[in-house]
Amino acid sequence: QGVKKEVTDQIQGLGANLVFVVPGKLDKNSQPNPLALLGVSTLTRQDLDALTVLPGVHKVTPFMFVAGTVEHERQPFSAFVVATAAAWADIRPRPMAEGRFFTRGEEIENVCVLAHQPRAAIFGDSPALGKTLTVQGAAFRVIGILPDEQASASFGGGGFENMIFLPAGAAQKQIPHVQINRIVLQTNPEYSPEQVLGEIERMMRVSH
Asked: What distance separates the 2 farthest-apart alpha carbons in the chain?
């Protein structure tokens, strides 16, 4: 049991047990169709709720891509803005460079967490914690900074190192036309991947 727990913890720490649900068809190279990044997503809140209760699924969180530039003191900056749930910090645990990730109780609060790149681009050597960013006219207060990390291909080349994270509830309340573009699931390593993926696929086919 001890070895099993240690292996499970290592897998979860690596993020090796993540599943991404992507709307739209895959092309023949098994890459998401570019239009699926831009078009109307068919993923819903009901999908999140249904996937959460599946055996073998440990945690579930939405990813909503928020368009537009980010402003600080009326200066525009380019960044990949994503709204998600507090569960993302559990699914992909990382030590914080400064501050903290938002909690479940703050998912409707106007707060945000910056990855290393946007923090450096927007604030330079100045302090960022407690400062305010504006996303599509809505103000969000910086409460956490993520450490520098290597580029990731999980999001089609736009890796986690360039992201600004907003709480999903606040984004849906404050920013128009926000939709669920991805559902990210963390599976339980004690279940076989084939079994869990099969359950996820069956559930998505029922609801779509």
From this structure: 56
DSSP 180: B
What dihedral do alpha carbons 156, 158, 160, 163 form, nearest 10°?
-140
Neighbours of 52 (CB within 10 A): 14
Whether 155 shows a pLDDT value over 60: the answer reads no
Token pair in block for residue 178: 């926000």
Per residue in 28-81, pLDDT (tens digit) is 666 666 555 556 788 999 999 999 999 999 999 999 999 888 999 999 998 889
Which pLDDT value is given to residue 114? 96
Q: Is 131 exposed, middle or buried (0-12, 13-18, 19+ CB in 10 A)?
A: middle
Spatial distance between the Cα atoms of 190 and 4, rounded to a whole number of angstroms = 8
Strands (E), 78-201: 80-84, 98-99, 111-114, 132-135, 138-145, 163-167, 182-187
